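Glycine cleavage system H protein, Hibiscus syriacus. Tokens?
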Amino acid sequence: MTGDGVPAGRLVCRAWVVHGGHQCKNNRITMALRMWGSSTANALKISCASKPHLPLSRCFSTVLDGLKYAESHEWVKHEGSVATIDITDHAQDHLGEVVFVELPEPGGSVSKGKGFGAVESVKVTSDVNSPISGEIVEVNSKLSEAPGLINSSPYEEGWMIKVKPSSPSELESLMGSTEYTKFCEEEDASH
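Tokens:
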């Protein structure tokens, strides 16, 4: 029990849900809490996406409104003439601790569905595909020194590339937050 009379586990679960899945410093504790929280939430039939004022989330993997998502687990944020691209919180969570990021050079181009880089974690190396086509106008050079930004801030500081879309209509074929949340839940249930 905690000082406020709430069982300690219940307080931890509430903190994880309310704060959208921010990570603890210790990966073993994080993994144990996620497994416990997820099984508890499933047993209690708790849905993390039930509060419209919070970002939609898949119990510990955050899915933000206003972004577009690919089935290969990359997101796109289109603002003006530039689109920012990175892997999703769901993807980084499955990869584990990211230790190296391979990025392309600015000025090159990307094609929808084709690889442009790779993310290496302590578990696996995974290619990263571009959800849209276009010219690379910027790469996140911070990732060469701090690849863990992909884990700690997948939707903000951990972005990988910025692209000038050559075919903005490609964005229409990507999923919104609700569709992507459902896609992740179905994908996880099948494994």
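The first strand starts at residue 56 and ends at 57.
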